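Inputs:
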Amino acid sequence: MKKRLGTQTIYFENPPSITACATVVGKKESEGPLGSYFDTVIEDGLYGEKSWEKAESKLMRTAISHVMHKAGLNFEDVHYLFAGDLLNQCSGSHFAVRAFAVPFFGLYGACSTMAESMSLAAMAIDGGFAEKVIASTSSHFCSAEKQFRLPLEYGGQRTPTAQWTCTGSGAAVISDHLMPPYITHVTTGKIIDLGVTDANNMGAAMAPAAADTIAAHFNDTGFCPTDYDLIITGDLGFIGKDILKDLLKRAGLDISPVQEDCGCILYDKDAQDVHSGGSGCGCSAVTFCGKLMNDLRCGIYSNILFIATGALMNTLTCQQGESIPCIAHAVRISTKAGGHA
Amino acid sequence: MKKRLGTQTIYFENPPSITACATVVGKKESEGPLGSYFDTVIEDGLYGEKSWEKAESKLMRTAISHVMHKAGLNFEDVHYLFAGDLLNQCSGSHFAVRAFAVPFFGLYGACSTMAESMSLAAMAIDGGFAEKVIASTSSHFCSAEKQFRLPLEYGGQRTPTAQWTCTGSGAAVISDHLMPPYITHVTTGKIIDLGVTDANNMGAAMAPAAADTIAAHFNDTGFCPTDYDLIITGDLGFIGKDILKDLLKRAGLDISPVQEDCGCILYDKDAQDVHSGGSGCGCSAVTFCGKLMNDLRCGIYSNILFIATGALMNTLTCQQGESIPCIAHAVRISTKAGGHA
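Outputs:
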C-alpha cells in the first residue's frame, strides 16, 4: 500500500516529529517583528570571518550545532543531514556541514530548500531509514547581493518589487519521537514557469508555483483552507502574496482568511524599508524554526501548511534572456499525529 | 524496525529495480571505448541551441524523455524526479525539468549527484512514497570550463592532473517492479576534507571521501571486496584511483582486483588526451546508465558497488584559499533482490 494521495501528495503512517529547531539571524532580522523568536543574533555581517560567504557558512554551522545541543544529539545520533543554500555550488552548506561527521544529502531548491529538506527528512524517517535527521538552510544578504545582483559598494537603487535577502539560518531536528508538532503530509511541487523574466520581481515569478502546489495539496488530500489555522508561503513578499491570493480565488480556493507569507512578516514594512518583503532560503527557515515552531508548541496553531517557494534562475540564464522557472513545496504540520484525509 | 546497518548504510526490504536507463553524450565521448553503449550522440556541442548552458539542459531533457519512452511512462506515471548538475544554481537541471510536469527534488552533490539521486529515488520507493522515480544528472565540457576554469577561447594549458568534464547526461527509471538489477543498499557519504587546495587535482581531493564511504560500506554491511564483481568510483581519474587503492590498503581493504573508475574508462587514455581521465556529473551517469546497466543485464556483472564522488568547492571558495570538501555516495546494485548482509 503506497502512502500516496492524488498526484503530488504523500502522507506518513507514523508522522515524524519536529523535535527541536534553532535559528541564527542578522541584526536587521533581529530588529524586525519576529526578533524575539530567534536564538542567536550576529551583530556584524561578517560574523568574525573574512568573507560574507564564510560568514554564511558559520550561520548554518551555528544553527546546526545549536539544534543538536537542544536535542541532545551527538554526530552518531544524526542519521542524515539535508541542507542547501543559494551560493554557487551550495558552498554555504558544504563549508558548514564539513564540520559535522554525518551522512549528508546536498539539495538545491533556492528559497524552497527548507520545505524540500523537511520533506526528504520526513520521508527518510517514515520510510524506516533514519531515526533523527537534521534539515537546514541559510542565506546572507551580502553574499546574495554580491552573487546575484550588484556589488554592495555600488549602492544601487532597488526596485519597488525587489525583496531583501534574509541573513539567517534555521535548522530543525526531525525524528521518530512521539512529540508534537508532526509532519503529516508533503506535497512536492513541479517546476512552473509562466514566462516572468524580471529577476527583481521574484514574487510574481514564484506565485504561480505556489498556487499550483497549494491547489494540488487540496485536490490530493480533500482538505480545505478552513482546515488550517495558517497557510504560509516562503517568500512571495507583498506583491507575490497578492498574486497568489488572486490565482487561487480564480481556481475556486479562498485562502485569504488564513494566508500569510514569511517574507511579509520577517521585517517591519514601514520602518525597515525592504520594499516587497524578505526573501532567501533563510527567510522561511528562520520564520518556521523561530516563530511558527514556537506558536505550534504554544497551541496558537494546530494545523499549518508551510509552502516554501523557490526561483530557480541564475544570473547567466537571466543574461541569456530566459524566464524564471519556479517551484514550491508544501509541508503540512499538525499538533496531532493522526487524521490523514 | 529500521532498515539500517551500522552508521551510514541502509538496505531495502523490497529492493527497487532499475527499470530503464538512457544516455546522451558528446562526440568525444562517443569516440571513446564506451561509445557503443550510448543511446544518442550529439555531433555539435551546441546541440542546436544558442549557448552551452542551454545545450546542457537539452542533454538532460533528451535523456529523461528517452528513458520515459523506453519505460513507457507518461508524466503522471513519474512520481518524483531527482536531478542536479554542476552549473550555478543547478540551472542545467531546472531548464531541462521545466519541460516535465512532474514533482521535482533538486539536488547538488557535484559529481556525486548520480549516486545521490539514485539513493533518494530508491528510498522514496522502498519507503512506500512512489512507484516510479527518475534519477538524472548532466554535465557539459564547455559550460563547465567556462564556469569553473578559463574561457575556452583562451586555449589554456591543462595540468597533467586535470580531468576532462564529460559532455553527457544519463537518466534512470527506478521503480517497484520486480525486474533486475536492483538497488539493495545505499551508503551515504559524509563530507571529507583533508586539505587539498588544488582545483586541478580533484582526484586527489576526492579519493579520501571515496575511501571513507567504501570503508563504511564494508564495516556496516559485513560484505567484503570479493563479494563484488566490480567496485567502481565516479570520477577519481587515474591519479585519484591510485590514491584510493592505497588509502584502502592501509585500512586493510584490498579492492584492486575489482577496482575501476568511470573517469578511467570513459575516454581512451592514449588516443584522447584527457590527462587524468574524465569527470563531471555526466561521467558516472553515462558510464552507469550506458555500460554498467548493459553489463548487469547481460549477466557480465551480478553485484557492483557504484560510488559517485563529488568535489564541493566553487571558484570563489578556491579564490578565498579554502580547501576542497568532498563527498562520495555508494549504491550497491545486484541482479538478485535478496540477501542483505
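Remarks. Chain B touches chain A through 63 residues (CB under 8 Å). Chain B has two domains: 4-175, 182-334.
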